[in-house]
Amino acid sequence: MIKLFLPLCILLLMSACNKSEMEAANSPAIKMMSEDKVAEEVYQVAPPNSISEKLLPDKNKSPQPSIAPKKLDTIAKKVIKNGNMRIQVGDIKKAQNQVADILKKNEAYIQNEQFQNTDLDDNLDLVIRIPHKNFDALINSFSEGVGSVLSKNISSDDVTEEYTDVSVKLANKKIYLEKYRDMLRSASTTKDMIEIQETIRELEDEIDVAEGRLRFIDDRVNYSTLNLSLYKEKVRSSATSKIGFGSRFADSVTEGWNSFVSFLLGIISFWPFLLLIPILIYLWRKWRTGRKK
């Protein structure tokens, strides 16, 4: 009897322990702790709430080298080329035709032309605009086939820094202009509207000036400028002149007559003094005669 009662007590005790464990597991406190633990685990694997958190480096990964941001709207190098040339030619008309052919070949054009004919020489002054890529070829063509080069001066001016500075300021002014236009649409008083409109007007003027400056620089960069002077000397000397003796004799007679006329006119210009001298002589003689009497 005792042997059967002892196992039965042990079995009842074990069933009571299992029941108490099940009740403890179903208690509210245990449920709350479990939910907090699960929530904590969920929050630990949740994605970051901000972009800056996404950009934080991963500790488990090896550090990657930093990459510099790509520059947008990179401004190309801006170089302005200018030149001055003076060429002595034997015939102005022939040289002018040669220049026209060279300009056509190099896609250049004449911006300004001025001709002057004097007793000593003939001068044809040209302001030529040439595409930047053809500037050197044009200079070489003038140096080789037109005449004797008396002087040549070529200069290059790098304006990249100025162009970049104006471009950046222009972009900023356009941004400010849009902001002020937004402010104008939301302005509530007349005073604010007038002040904003005045600021907008000033910004628009500054933008126009900046855009004009950029257009001017682009024009000077894309088309170089060359000041070309064609020169023909008129020499009149016995050693170098091709004019005959008769012509030179006539020129000498003409120059002598012109000199005589100039001398005569110069004397005539002193007529007040010539008129005053006889009067002074007459008065002096009269005074002297009276003194003797």
Q: Proportion of β residues?
A: 15-25%
What would the principal axes of the Cα set say about the shape?
A: flat
Class of secondary structure makeup:
alpha+beta
Tally of separate helices: 9
Mean pLDDT: 74
Per CATH, the architecture of the domain at 79-158 and 224-233 is 2-Layer Sandwich
Run of helices and strands: HHHEHEEHEHHEHH
The percent of residues in helical segments reads 55-70%
The total of beta strands comes to 5
Biggest sheet descriptor: 5 strands, mixed
- Determine Rg (CA atoms, Å): 51 Å
Report the span from N to C terminus: 207 Å
Strand order of the largest sheet: 2-3-5-1-4
Unreliable spans are: 24-72, 238-242
CATH class value of the domain at 79-158 and 224-233: Alpha Beta
Q: Could you please say which CATH topology of the domain at 79-158 and 224-233 applies here?
A: Alpha-Beta Plaits
Keywords: Coiled coil, Membrane, Signal, Transmembrane, Transmembrane helix
InterPro entries: DUF4349
Protein name: DUF4349 domain-containing protein
Domain DUF4349: 78-284
Structural descriptors:
293 residues, alpha+beta, Alpha-Beta Plaits, five-stranded mixed beta sheet, 9 helices, 60% helix
